[in-house]
Protein backbone atom coordinates (compact mmCIF):
# COMPACT_ATOMS: atom_id res chain seq x y z
CA UNK A 1 0.00 0.00 0.00
CA UNK A 2 2.09 2.95 -1.20
CA UNK A 3 1.49 6.37 0.25
CA UNK A 4 1.12 9.29 -2.18
CA UNK A 5 4.67 10.55 -2.74
CA UNK A 6 3.73 14.03 -3.93
CA UNK A 7 1.77 14.75 -0.78
CA UNK A 8 4.65 13.52 1.30
CA UNK A 9 7.07 15.68 -0.64
CA UNK A 10 4.88 18.71 0.01
CA UNK A 11 4.89 17.90 3.72
CA UNK A 12 1.14 17.37 3.77
CA UNK A 13 -0.77 14.58 5.46
CA UNK A 14 -1.04 11.52 3.24
CA UNK A 15 -4.28 9.68 3.79
CA UNK A 16 -4.04 5.91 3.83
CA UNK A 17 -6.48 4.51 1.29
CA UNK A 18 -7.09 1.42 3.42
CA UNK A 19 -7.86 2.78 6.89
CA UNK A 20 -8.28 6.49 6.20
CA UNK A 21 -5.68 7.49 8.79
CA UNK A 22 -3.64 10.59 8.09
CA UNK A 23 0.12 9.98 7.97
CA UNK A 24 2.72 12.70 8.17
CA UNK A 25 6.19 11.61 7.22
CA UNK A 26 9.33 13.71 7.41
CA UNK A 27 12.13 12.21 5.33
CA UNK A 28 15.76 13.13 5.86
CA UNK A 29 18.83 12.74 3.61
CA UNK A 30 19.95 9.63 5.52
CA UNK A 31 17.05 7.81 3.87
CA UNK A 32 18.82 8.14 0.50
CA UNK A 33 22.34 7.32 1.63
CA UNK A 34 23.75 4.21 -0.02
CA UNK A 35 25.23 1.76 2.48
CA UNK A 36 29.01 1.97 2.38
CA UNK A 37 30.72 -1.32 3.10
CA UNK A 38 34.25 -1.45 4.47
CA UNK A 39 36.59 -2.68 1.76
CA UNK A 40 40.04 -3.35 3.17
CA UNK A 41 42.96 -2.84 0.83
CA UNK A 42 45.53 -5.52 0.14
CA UNK A 43 48.79 -5.14 2.06
CA UNK A 44 51.90 -4.52 -0.05
CA UNK A 45 55.30 -6.08 0.61
CA UNK A 46 56.71 -4.77 3.92
CA UNK A 47 53.50 -3.05 5.00
CA UNK A 48 51.84 -3.71 8.36
CA UNK A 49 49.10 -6.30 7.99
CA UNK A 50 45.94 -7.09 9.94
CA UNK A 51 46.35 -9.64 12.76
CA UNK A 52 43.30 -11.65 11.62
CA UNK A 53 43.70 -11.01 7.87
CA UNK A 54 47.43 -11.16 7.02
CA UNK A 55 46.78 -10.19 3.40
CA UNK A 56 44.99 -6.94 4.30
CA UNK A 57 46.66 -3.66 5.07
CA UNK A 58 46.47 -2.52 8.72
CA UNK A 59 44.79 0.84 9.26
CA UNK A 60 45.03 1.11 13.05
CA UNK A 61 46.19 -0.60 16.20
CA UNK A 62 43.73 -1.85 18.82
CA UNK A 63 43.86 0.56 21.75
CA UNK A 64 43.37 -2.28 24.23
CA UNK A 65 45.69 -5.08 23.06
CA UNK A 66 47.77 -3.35 20.40
CA UNK A 67 46.99 -5.76 17.57
CA UNK A 68 46.92 -4.31 14.07
CA UNK A 69 43.50 -4.22 12.49
CA UNK A 70 42.36 -3.75 8.89
CA UNK A 71 39.47 -1.54 7.85
CA UNK A 72 37.08 -4.47 8.15
CA UNK A 73 38.18 -5.37 11.68
CA UNK A 74 38.45 -1.85 13.11
CA UNK A 75 35.63 -1.21 15.55
CA UNK A 76 35.25 2.42 16.51
CA UNK A 77 33.88 3.54 19.87
CA UNK A 78 33.94 7.32 19.95
CA UNK A 79 37.54 8.39 19.37
CA UNK A 80 39.08 4.96 19.98
CA UNK A 81 39.57 1.85 17.88
CA UNK A 82 39.43 -1.76 19.11
CA UNK A 83 39.83 -5.13 17.53
CA UNK A 84 36.82 -7.50 17.40
CA UNK A 85 38.37 -9.83 20.03
CA UNK A 86 38.57 -7.06 22.66
CA UNK A 87 35.04 -5.95 21.88
CA UNK A 88 33.78 -9.55 22.16
CA UNK A 89 35.63 -10.03 25.45
CA UNK A 90 33.85 -6.95 26.77
CA UNK A 91 36.50 -6.36 29.39
CA UNK A 92 38.51 -3.41 30.58
CA UNK A 93 37.93 -0.05 29.00
CA UNK A 94 35.59 -1.42 26.36
CA UNK A 95 33.08 -2.11 29.07
CA UNK A 96 33.55 1.35 30.57
CA UNK A 97 33.13 3.03 27.23
CA UNK A 98 30.14 0.99 26.12
CA UNK A 99 26.81 2.78 26.23
CA UNK A 100 24.48 2.02 29.10
CA UNK A 101 21.21 0.60 27.83
CA UNK A 102 19.39 0.03 31.14
CA UNK A 103 19.68 1.20 34.73
CA UNK A 104 18.03 0.45 38.04
CA UNK A 105 16.89 3.70 39.64
CA UNK A 106 18.06 3.37 43.23
CA UNK A 107 17.19 7.01 43.96
CA UNK A 108 13.54 6.33 43.09
CA UNK A 109 13.58 3.21 45.29
CA UNK A 110 15.05 5.27 48.15
CA UNK A 111 12.33 7.87 47.70
CA UNK A 112 9.46 5.38 47.46
CA UNK A 113 10.20 3.01 50.36
CA UNK A 114 9.77 5.42 53.30
CA UNK A 115 6.52 6.83 51.88
CA UNK A 116 5.09 3.43 50.90
CA UNK A 117 5.85 2.09 54.39
CA UNK A 118 3.61 4.79 55.88
CA UNK A 119 0.62 2.82 54.57
CA UNK A 120 1.43 0.27 57.27
CA UNK A 121 3.30 2.44 59.74
CA UNK A 122 4.88 -0.25 62.00
CA UNK A 123 6.96 -1.23 58.97
CA UNK A 124 8.70 2.14 59.07
CA UNK A 125 10.87 0.89 61.95
CA UNK A 126 12.46 -1.53 59.50
CA UNK A 127 12.23 0.39 56.24
CA UNK A 128 13.78 3.62 57.58
CA UNK A 129 16.96 1.78 58.44
CA UNK A 130 16.90 -0.15 55.15
CA UNK A 131 16.40 3.06 53.16
CA UNK A 132 19.34 4.86 54.76
CA UNK A 133 21.54 1.79 54.24
CA UNK A 134 20.45 1.44 50.61
CA UNK A 135 21.06 5.13 49.96
CA UNK A 136 24.54 4.92 51.47
CA UNK A 137 25.39 1.82 49.41
CA UNK A 138 24.08 3.12 46.10
CA UNK A 139 24.89 6.84 46.40
CA UNK A 140 27.78 6.55 43.95
CA UNK A 141 25.96 4.33 41.44
CA UNK A 142 25.20 6.09 38.15
CA UNK A 143 21.97 8.01 38.01
CA UNK A 144 19.67 8.07 35.03
CA UNK A 145 21.43 10.05 32.27
CA UNK A 146 18.52 12.47 32.15
CA UNK A 147 18.53 13.17 35.89
CA UNK A 148 21.12 15.61 37.15
CA UNK A 149 20.39 15.85 40.85
CA UNK A 150 20.21 13.40 43.73
CA UNK A 151 17.23 15.06 45.39
CA UNK A 152 15.34 11.75 45.53
CA UNK A 153 18.14 10.29 47.62
CA UNK A 154 18.13 13.35 49.90
CA UNK A 155 14.35 13.39 50.39
CA UNK A 156 14.27 9.61 51.00
CA UNK A 157 17.08 9.84 53.55
CA UNK A 158 15.44 12.86 55.20
CA UNK A 159 12.06 11.16 55.59
CA UNK A 160 13.75 7.97 56.85
CA UNK A 161 15.73 9.94 59.44
CA UNK A 162 12.54 11.62 60.62
CA UNK A 163 10.87 8.20 60.92
CA UNK A 164 13.86 6.85 62.83
CA UNK A 165 13.79 9.89 65.13
CA UNK A 166 10.10 9.39 65.84
CA UNK A 167 10.71 5.72 66.68
CA UNK A 168 13.55 6.64 69.03
CA UNK A 169 11.34 9.27 70.68
CA UNK A 170 8.46 6.77 71.04
CA UNK A 171 10.68 4.09 72.56
CA UNK A 172 12.30 6.60 74.94
CA UNK A 173 8.90 7.98 75.94
CA UNK A 174 7.53 4.50 76.67
CA UNK A 175 10.66 3.55 78.59
CA UNK A 176 10.56 6.72 80.73
CA UNK A 177 6.84 6.26 81.34
CA UNK A 178 7.36 2.66 82.43
CA UNK A 179 10.21 3.74 84.74
CA UNK A 180 8.18 6.52 86.38
CA UNK A 181 5.25 4.13 87.00
CA UNK A 182 7.51 1.81 88.96
CA UNK B 1 28.06 6.51 29.85
CA UNK B 2 29.67 9.87 29.78
CA UNK B 3 28.14 11.91 32.60
CA UNK B 4 29.09 15.13 30.87
CA UNK B 5 26.33 14.61 28.29
CA UNK B 6 23.59 17.14 28.81
CA UNK B 7 20.14 16.21 27.65
CA UNK B 8 17.29 18.53 26.84
CA UNK B 9 13.77 17.19 27.01
CA UNK B 10 11.82 17.06 23.78
CA UNK B 11 8.04 17.57 23.76
CA UNK B 12 5.97 14.67 25.04
CA UNK B 13 6.06 12.57 28.14
CA UNK B 14 4.12 9.46 28.99
CA UNK B 15 3.52 8.86 32.68
CA UNK B 16 1.51 5.71 33.21
CA UNK B 17 0.69 3.83 36.39
CA UNK B 18 3.50 1.39 35.74
CA UNK B 19 5.22 2.48 32.56
CA UNK B 20 6.55 5.80 31.36
CA UNK B 21 8.51 7.19 28.45
CA UNK B 22 10.20 10.37 27.34
CA UNK B 23 12.52 11.56 24.58
CA UNK B 24 15.63 13.67 25.19
CA UNK B 25 17.98 15.51 22.88
CA UNK B 26 21.78 15.43 23.13
CA UNK B 27 24.15 17.32 20.80
CA UNK B 28 24.51 14.32 18.47
CA UNK B 29 21.69 11.93 19.30
CA UNK B 30 18.13 11.48 20.50
CA UNK B 31 17.66 9.37 23.62
CA UNK B 32 14.46 7.38 24.09
CA UNK B 33 13.89 6.56 27.77
CA UNK B 34 11.39 3.86 28.65
CA UNK B 35 10.80 3.44 32.36
CA UNK B 36 9.17 0.65 34.33
CA UNK B 37 8.89 2.13 37.84
CA UNK B 38 12.41 1.51 39.19
CA UNK B 39 14.12 0.60 35.94
CA UNK B 40 14.89 2.61 32.84
CA UNK B 41 15.85 1.41 29.38
CA UNK B 42 17.62 3.66 26.91
CA UNK B 43 17.85 3.69 23.14
CA UNK B 44 19.89 6.17 21.14
CA UNK B 45 19.20 7.41 17.64
CA UNK B 46 22.09 9.40 16.22
CA UNK B 47 20.96 12.49 14.35
CA UNK B 48 23.05 11.53 11.32
CA UNK B 49 21.27 8.14 11.13
CA UNK B 50 17.63 9.20 11.39
CA UNK B 51 15.97 8.52 8.06
CA UNK B 52 12.38 9.49 8.77
CA UNK B 53 9.83 10.40 11.42
CA UNK B 54 6.33 9.15 10.69
CA UNK B 55 3.20 10.20 12.52
CA UNK B 56 -0.02 8.29 11.93
CA UNK B 57 -3.38 9.26 13.40
CA UNK B 58 -4.54 6.50 15.75
CA UNK B 59 -6.71 6.28 18.87
CA UNK B 60 -4.65 6.16 22.08
CA UNK B 61 -6.63 5.56 25.28
CA UNK B 62 -3.83 6.18 27.74
CA UNK B 63 -4.57 6.50 31.46
CA UNK B 64 -1.94 8.82 32.86
CA UNK B 65 -0.96 9.42 36.48
CA UNK B 66 -2.49 12.88 36.07
CA UNK B 67 -5.90 11.40 35.21
CA UNK B 68 -5.66 8.96 38.14
CA UNK B 69 -4.95 11.87 40.51
CA UNK B 70 -7.86 13.77 38.97
CA UNK B 71 -10.14 10.75 39.52
CA UNK B 72 -9.04 10.47 43.16
CA UNK B 73 -9.69 14.19 43.71
CA UNK B 74 -13.13 13.73 42.16
CA UNK B 75 -13.83 10.78 44.49
CA UNK B 76 -12.75 12.85 47.48
CA UNK B 77 -14.94 15.78 46.40
CA UNK B 78 -17.84 13.37 45.84
CA UNK B 79 -17.44 11.87 49.31
CA UNK B 80 -17.42 15.35 50.87
CA UNK B 81 -20.44 16.49 48.83
CA UNK B 82 -22.40 13.31 49.63
CA UNK B 83 -21.67 13.71 53.35
CA UNK B 84 -22.78 17.34 53.29
CA UNK B 85 -25.99 16.37 51.54
CA UNK B 86 -26.62 13.74 54.19
CA UNK B 87 -26.09 16.32 56.94
CA UNK B 88 -28.43 18.78 55.21
CA UNK B 89 -30.97 15.95 54.83
CA UNK B 90 -30.77 15.32 58.56
CA UNK B 91 -31.23 19.05 59.23
CA UNK B 92 -34.31 19.12 56.98
CA UNK B 93 -35.65 16.12 58.86
CA UNK B 94 -35.05 18.08 62.06
CA UNK B 95 -37.26 20.97 60.84
CA UNK B 96 -34.81 23.23 59.02
CA UNK B 97 -35.73 24.73 55.64
CA UNK B 98 -34.32 23.00 52.53
CA UNK B 99 -32.12 25.15 50.32
CA UNK B 100 -33.39 24.96 46.74
CA UNK B 101 -31.13 24.38 43.73
CA UNK B 102 -29.04 21.63 42.27
CA UNK B 103 -27.10 19.46 44.68
CA UNK B 104 -23.32 19.27 44.76
CA UNK B 105 -23.17 15.62 43.72
CA UNK B 106 -25.15 16.41 40.57
CA UNK B 107 -22.58 19.04 39.60
CA UNK B 108 -19.83 16.52 40.24
CA UNK B 109 -21.48 13.91 38.02
CA UNK B 110 -21.81 16.52 35.24
CA UNK B 111 -18.13 17.45 35.71
CA UNK B 112 -17.12 13.77 35.57
CA UNK B 113 -19.16 13.24 32.39
CA UNK B 114 -17.52 16.28 30.75
CA UNK B 115 -14.02 15.18 31.76
CA UNK B 116 -14.51 11.58 30.62
CA UNK B 117 -16.08 12.80 27.37
CA UNK B 118 -13.16 15.15 26.72
CA UNK B 119 -10.63 12.39 27.46
CA UNK B 120 -12.45 9.96 25.15
CA UNK B 121 -12.68 12.53 22.35
CA UNK B 122 -9.01 13.53 22.60
CA UNK B 123 -7.94 9.89 22.82
CA UNK B 124 -10.01 8.92 19.78
CA UNK B 125 -9.66 11.92 17.49
CA UNK B 126 -6.50 13.82 18.43
CA UNK B 127 -4.02 11.03 19.09
CA UNK B 128 -1.34 9.42 17.01
CA UNK B 129 1.52 6.96 16.82
CA UNK B 130 4.95 8.37 16.12
CA UNK B 131 7.75 6.22 14.74
CA UNK B 132 11.38 7.00 14.18
CA UNK B 133 13.24 5.21 11.37
CA UNK B 134 16.93 4.48 10.93
CA UNK B 135 18.60 2.03 8.55
CA UNK B 136 18.47 -0.70 11.18
CA UNK B 137 15.45 0.12 13.33
CA UNK B 138 11.93 1.45 13.27
CA UNK B 139 10.72 2.17 16.78
CA UNK B 140 7.62 3.75 18.18
CA UNK B 141 8.05 6.72 20.49
CA UNK B 142 5.50 6.04 23.25
CA UNK B 143 5.81 9.53 24.74
CA UNK B 144 4.57 11.20 21.55
CA UNK B 145 0.94 10.13 21.47
CA UNK B 146 -1.03 13.33 20.96
CA UNK B 147 -1.22 15.08 17.59
CA UNK B 148 -0.17 18.50 18.90
CA UNK B 149 2.75 16.97 20.79
CA UNK B 150 3.87 15.20 17.61
CA UNK B 151 3.81 18.47 15.69
CA UNK B 152 5.90 20.23 18.34
CA UNK B 153 8.25 17.23 18.57
CA UNK B 154 8.95 17.17 14.83
CA UNK B 155 9.25 20.97 14.66
CA UNK B 156 11.81 20.95 17.46
CA UNK B 157 13.84 17.98 16.22
CA UNK B 158 13.88 18.78 12.50
CA UNK B 159 16.42 21.67 12.64
CA UNK B 160 18.87 19.50 14.59
CA UNK B 161 18.61 16.66 12.06
CA UNK B 162 18.97 19.18 9.24
CA UNK B 163 22.11 20.53 10.90
CA UNK B 164 23.57 17.02 11.09
CA UNK B 165 22.49 15.75 7.66
CA UNK B 166 21.66 18.77 5.56
CA UNK B 167 18.37 19.15 3.75
CA UNK B 168 16.77 17.33 0.85
CA UNK B 169 16.94 19.20 -2.42
CA UNK B 170 15.34 18.71 -5.76
CA UNK B 171 12.38 16.48 -6.56
CA UNK B 172 13.20 13.73 -4.10
CA UNK B 173 9.68 12.31 -4.33
CA UNK B 174 10.73 10.55 -7.55
CA UNK B 175 13.81 9.11 -5.90
CA UNK B 176 11.75 7.57 -3.11
CA UNK B 177 10.66 4.79 -5.47
CA UNK B 178 14.08 3.19 -5.48
CA UNK B 179 14.86 3.53 -1.78
CA UNK B 180 13.50 1.82 1.29
CA UNK B 181 13.15 3.61 4.60
CA UNK B 182 13.79 1.68 7.81
CA UNK B 183 15.35 -1.72 8.35
CA UNK B 184 15.10 -4.48 5.70
CA UNK B 185 11.68 -5.98 6.13
CA UNK B 186 10.31 -9.47 5.82
CA UNK B 187 6.69 -9.42 4.85
CA UNK B 188 4.28 -11.26 7.13
CA UNK B 189 3.38 -14.84 6.19
CA UNK B 190 -0.13 -13.99 5.06
CA UNK B 191 1.38 -11.88 2.25
CA UNK B 192 4.55 -13.76 1.38
CA UNK B 193 3.37 -17.35 1.61
CA UNK B 194 -0.23 -16.97 0.49
CA UNK B 195 -1.10 -17.25 -3.15
CA UNK B 196 -2.37 -14.08 -4.82
CA UNK B 197 -5.96 -13.54 -3.86
CA UNK B 198 -5.87 -16.14 -1.13
CA UNK B 199 -7.88 -15.42 2.01
CA UNK B 200 -5.68 -14.80 5.03
CA UNK B 201 -6.15 -17.10 7.97
CA UNK B 202 -8.55 -15.96 10.71
CA UNK B 203 -6.88 -14.33 13.70
CA UNK B 204 -6.93 -16.43 16.89
CA UNK B 205 -10.12 -16.14 18.91
CA UNK B 206 -9.62 -13.91 21.95
CA UNK B 207 -11.20 -16.32 24.44
CA UNK B 208 -9.60 -14.51 27.36
CA UNK B 209 -11.28 -11.29 26.25
CA UNK B 210 -14.68 -13.00 26.00
CA UNK B 211 -14.28 -14.51 29.48
CA UNK B 212 -13.13 -11.15 30.84
CA UNK B 213 -16.14 -9.26 29.45
CA UNK B 214 -18.60 -11.97 30.48
CA UNK B 215 -17.30 -12.15 34.04
CA UNK B 216 -17.40 -8.36 34.48
CA UNK B 217 -20.91 -7.99 33.08
CA UNK B 218 -22.17 -11.05 34.95
CA UNK B 219 -20.62 -9.86 38.22
CA UNK B 220 -22.22 -6.42 37.86
CA UNK B 221 -25.57 -7.89 36.88
CA UNK B 222 -25.46 -10.43 39.72
CA UNK B 223 -24.96 -7.64 42.21
CA UNK B 224 -28.05 -5.80 41.04
CA UNK B 225 -30.09 -9.04 40.76
CA UNK B 226 -29.17 -10.12 44.28
CA UNK B 227 -30.42 -6.86 45.80
CA UNK B 228 -33.19 -7.72 48.25
CA UNK B 229 -32.26 -11.40 48.47
CA UNK B 230 -31.08 -12.92 51.75
CA UNK B 231 -27.58 -11.76 52.77
CA UNK B 232 -26.04 -15.24 52.68
CA UNK B 233 -26.77 -15.58 48.93
CA UNK B 234 -24.80 -12.46 48.08
CA UNK B 235 -22.13 -13.47 50.56
CA UNK B 236 -21.56 -16.77 48.74
CA UNK B 237 -22.30 -15.95 45.12
CA UNK B 238 -20.55 -12.58 44.66
CA UNK B 239 -17.08 -13.80 45.73
CA UNK B 240 -17.36 -16.50 43.04
CA UNK B 241 -17.80 -13.80 40.42
CA UNK B 242 -14.88 -11.85 41.91
CA UNK B 243 -12.73 -14.97 41.59
CA UNK B 244 -13.78 -15.47 37.95
CA UNK B 245 -13.12 -11.79 37.20
CA UNK B 246 -9.65 -11.97 38.70
CA UNK B 247 -8.82 -15.19 36.79
CA UNK B 248 -10.07 -13.82 33.46
CA UNK B 249 -8.18 -10.55 34.02
CA UNK B 250 -4.96 -12.48 34.53
CA UNK B 251 -5.77 -14.47 31.37
CA UNK B 252 -6.13 -11.19 29.45
CA UNK B 253 -2.77 -9.97 30.77
CA UNK B 254 -1.16 -13.25 29.66
CA UNK B 255 -2.79 -12.92 26.22
CA UNK B 256 -1.43 -9.36 25.96
CA UNK B 257 2.01 -10.62 26.89
CA UNK B 258 1.80 -13.22 24.11
CA UNK B 259 0.74 -10.54 21.66
CA UNK B 260 -2.71 -12.05 21.10
CA UNK B 261 -4.49 -8.91 22.31
CA UNK B 262 -3.78 -5.24 21.78
CA UNK B 263 -2.12 -3.08 24.42
CA UNK B 264 -5.43 -1.32 25.14
CA UNK B 265 -6.59 -4.60 26.69
CA UNK B 266 -3.66 -4.46 29.09
CA UNK B 267 -4.77 -1.01 30.30
CA UNK B 268 -8.33 -2.27 30.72
CA UNK B 269 -7.14 -5.37 32.59
CA UNK B 270 -4.96 -3.33 34.96
CA UNK B 271 -7.86 -0.97 35.70
CA UNK B 272 -10.13 -3.99 36.25
CA UNK B 273 -7.59 -5.55 38.62
CA UNK B 274 -7.44 -2.32 40.64
CA UNK B 275 -11.25 -2.15 40.78
CA UNK B 276 -11.48 -5.82 41.81
CA UNK B 277 -8.86 -5.30 44.52
CA UNK B 278 -10.65 -2.20 45.80
CA UNK B 279 -13.97 -4.07 45.80
CA UNK B 280 -12.47 -6.90 47.81
CA UNK B 281 -10.81 -4.49 50.22
CA UNK B 282 -14.00 -2.42 50.65
CA UNK B 283 -16.14 -5.51 51.26
CA UNK B 284 -13.65 -6.74 53.83
CA UNK B 285 -13.48 -3.36 55.61
CA UNK B 286 -17.24 -2.84 55.64
CA UNK B 287 -17.78 -6.39 56.90
CA UNK B 288 -15.25 -5.90 59.67
CA UNK B 289 -16.69 -2.52 60.71
CA UNK B 290 -20.19 -4.01 60.66
CA UNK B 291 -19.13 -6.85 62.95
CA UNK B 292 -17.44 -4.47 65.37
CA UNK B 293 -20.51 -2.24 65.36
CA UNK B 294 -22.85 -5.17 66.02
CA UNK B 295 -20.73 -6.40 68.89
CA UNK B 296 -20.63 -2.91 70.39
CA UNK B 297 -24.41 -2.56 69.99
CA UNK B 298 -24.99 -5.90 71.69
CA UNK B 299 -22.68 -4.82 74.52
CA UNK B 300 -24.20 -1.36 74.99
CA UNK B 301 -27.14 -0.65 72.68
CA UNK B 302 -27.05 3.15 72.35
CA UNK B 303 -28.95 5.25 69.82
CA UNK B 304 -25.75 6.82 68.50
CA UNK B 305 -24.28 3.41 67.76
CA UNK B 306 -27.44 2.29 65.94
CA UNK B 307 -27.40 5.48 63.86
CA UNK B 308 -23.74 4.91 63.05
CA UNK B 309 -24.49 1.34 61.96
CA UNK B 310 -27.36 2.49 59.78
CA UNK B 311 -25.16 5.17 58.15
CA UNK B 312 -22.42 2.62 57.61
CA UNK B 313 -24.86 0.20 55.97
CA UNK B 314 -26.16 2.94 53.66
CA UNK B 315 -22.64 4.00 52.72
CA UNK B 316 -21.66 0.37 52.09
CA UNK B 317 -24.69 -0.06 49.81
CA UNK B 318 -23.83 3.09 47.83
CA UNK B 319 -20.19 2.03 47.52
CA UNK B 320 -21.02 -1.49 46.33
CA UNK B 321 -23.58 -0.12 43.84
CA UNK B 322 -20.91 2.23 42.52
CA UNK B 323 -18.37 -0.57 42.17
CA UNK B 324 -20.91 -2.86 40.48
CA UNK B 325 -21.61 -0.03 38.04
CA UNK B 326 -17.88 0.25 37.40
CA UNK B 327 -17.74 -3.48 36.57
CA UNK B 328 -20.51 -3.05 34.03
CA UNK B 329 -18.75 0.00 32.53
CA UNK B 330 -15.50 -1.94 32.21
CA UNK B 331 -17.36 -4.79 30.53
CA UNK B 332 -18.90 -2.33 28.05
CA UNK B 333 -15.46 -0.85 27.39
CA UNK B 334 -14.29 -4.39 26.64
CA UNK B 335 -17.11 -4.87 24.13
CA UNK B 336 -16.10 -1.59 22.45
CA UNK B 337 -12.49 -2.75 22.25
CA UNK B 338 -13.56 -6.10 20.85
CA UNK B 339 -15.67 -4.46 18.15
CA UNK B 340 -12.83 -2.05 17.33
CA UNK B 341 -10.45 -4.99 16.99
CA UNK B 342 -12.65 -6.69 14.38
CA UNK B 343 -12.25 -3.88 11.87
CA UNK B 344 -9.62 -4.57 9.21
CA UNK B 345 -6.30 -3.75 10.78
CA UNK B 346 -4.29 -1.18 8.84
CA UNK B 347 -0.81 -2.23 7.84
CA UNK B 348 1.93 -0.86 10.02
CA UNK B 349 4.10 1.90 8.64
CA UNK B 350 7.01 -0.52 8.48
CA UNK B 351 5.13 -2.46 5.80
CA UNK B 352 4.33 0.58 3.73
CA UNK B 353 6.48 1.26 0.74
CA UNK B 354 7.21 4.95 1.19
Name its key features.
heterodimer, A: 182 residues, alpha+beta, two-stranded antiparallel ribbon, 6 helices, 7 strands, elongated, B: 354 residues, four-stranded antiparallel β-sheet, three-stranded antiparallel β-sheet, 9 helices, disordered C terminus
- The whole-number mean of residue pLDDT values of chain B reads 78
Helix/strand order of chain B, N-terminal first: EEEEEHHEEHHHHHHH
Number of strands of chain A: 7
Determine the N-to-C terminus distance of chain A.
89 Å
Structural class of chain B: alpha+beta
Low-confidence stretches of chain B: 187-202, 343-354
Strand order of the largest sheet of chain A: 1-2
Biggest interface: A-B, 39 and 58 residues
Give the SSE string of chain A.
HEEEEEEHHEHHH
The pLDDT mean of chain A sits at: 83
Q: What's the total helix number of chain B?
A: 9
> Could you give a short account of the major beta sheet of chain B?
4 strands, antiparallel
The multimeric state of the shown protein is heterodimer
**Percent of sequence in beta strands of chain A:** 5-15%
Helix content of chain A: 40-55%
Which residue ranges of chain A are poorly predicted, with pLDDT under 50 across at least 5 consecutive positions?
Answer: none
Number of helices of chain A: 6
Largest sheet of chain A: 2 strands, antiparallel
What does it look like?
The complex is a heterodimer of chains A (182) and B (354). Chain A has 182 residues and is α+β, with helices and mostly antiparallel strands. Chain A is built from 6 helices and 7 strands. Chain A has helices at residues 5-9, 84-89, 93-97, 106-116, 124-138, 151-181; strands spanning 14-15, 22-27, 60-61, 68-69, 75-77, 80-82, 102-104. In chain A, the strands form 3 sheets. Chain A has a two-stranded antiparallel ribbon. In chain A, strand 5 (75-77) and strand 6 form a beta hairpin. In chain A, helix 4 runs antiparallel to helix 5 (124-138), helix 4 packs parallel to helix 6 and helix 5 packs antiparallel against helix 6. The longest helix of chain A has 31 residues, at 151-181. The radius of gyration of chain A is 31 Å and the shape is elongated. The N and C termini of chain A lie far apart (89 Å). By secondary structure, chain B is an alpha+beta fold. Helix content of chain B is 56%, strand content 13%. Chain B is built from 9 helices and 7 strands; from the N terminus they run E-E-E-E-E-H-H-E-E-H-H-H-H-H-H-H. Chain B has helices at 65-93, 104-125, 147-165, 172-175, 189-192, 207-225, 231-257, 263-299, 303-341, and strands spanning 8-15, 19-25, 29-36, 39-46, 52-57, 128-133, 138-140. In chain B, the strands form 2 sheets. Chain B has a 4-stranded antiparallel β-sheet with strand order 1-2-3-4, with helices on one face. A 3-stranded antiparallel β-sheet of chain B has the order 5-6-7, with helices on one face. In chain B, strand 2 (19-25) and strand 3 (29-36) form a beta hairpin. Chain B is elongated and about 90 Å long. At the A-B interface, helix 1, strand 2, strand 7 and helix 4 of A face strand 3, strand 4, strand 5, helix 3 and helix 4 of B. Strand 7 of chain A pairs antiparallel with strand 4 of chain B.
Amino acid sequence: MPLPKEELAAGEAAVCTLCGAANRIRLFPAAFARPTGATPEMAAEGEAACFDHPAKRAVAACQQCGRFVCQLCAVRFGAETWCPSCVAAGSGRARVASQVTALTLFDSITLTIPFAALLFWPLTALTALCTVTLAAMTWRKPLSPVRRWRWRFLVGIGVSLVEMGLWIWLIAYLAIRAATRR
Amino acid sequence: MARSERYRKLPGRRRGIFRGASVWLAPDHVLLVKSLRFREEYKRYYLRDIQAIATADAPRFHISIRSVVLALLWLYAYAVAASMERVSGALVAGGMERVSGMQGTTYLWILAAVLVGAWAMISAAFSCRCRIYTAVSSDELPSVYRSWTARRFVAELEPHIAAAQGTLEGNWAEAVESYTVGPPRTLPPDITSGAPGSIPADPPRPWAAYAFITSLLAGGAAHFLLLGTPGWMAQWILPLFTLCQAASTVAVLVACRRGELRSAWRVLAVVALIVIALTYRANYSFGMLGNIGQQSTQASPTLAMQQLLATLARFANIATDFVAGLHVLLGLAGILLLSAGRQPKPPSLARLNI
